[in-house]
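tool_call: predict_structure(chain=1)
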Amino acid sequence: MSEENKNIVTEEDDDEMPELAVVAFGVIMEAGDAKLAAEKALEKLHEFDFEGADALFVEAAEHLRKAHNAQTEVVQSEISGTKYENSFLFNHAQDTLMTAMTQLTLSKEICALYKILYQKITGSQDA
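tool_result:
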C-alpha cells in the first residue's frame, strides 16, 4: 500500500472503491487462481503427468505468494497505525487465501502418494 493511500478507512469518496476492497479483490483473484492451478494439477495426476502437475504447483505457489504479499501489506500497515474498518470482503479474502493454501498443500501430498503408487505399480523410479 502506498503512503498516500493509507487514509482509506473510514471516509471514502463515493466514486472510489476503498483501497482495502481493492486489495481484497486482488487476494481473492490470486488465491482463486492458485486453487484452480492446484485442481488442474490433480487432473494431471490422473494421467500420471507428474511434470505437468509440478508445473501447475509452481504456478499455484506464485499466485499464493502474490496474494499473501498483498495481505501482509495490509497487516503491516495496520501494525504501523493505519486503522481499518472491519471488512467482510477482506475477511472473505483471507479465508479464500487460507483455503487455497490448504488446497495446494493437500494436492502436493496427493501427488507424492501418486508418485509412490506409480513407482510400486510400474517398478520404475522415474516418478
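agent: Residues 17-122 form a domain with the Methane Monooxygenase Hydroxylase; Chain G, domain 1 fold (CATH 1.20.58.80). Proceeding to next step.
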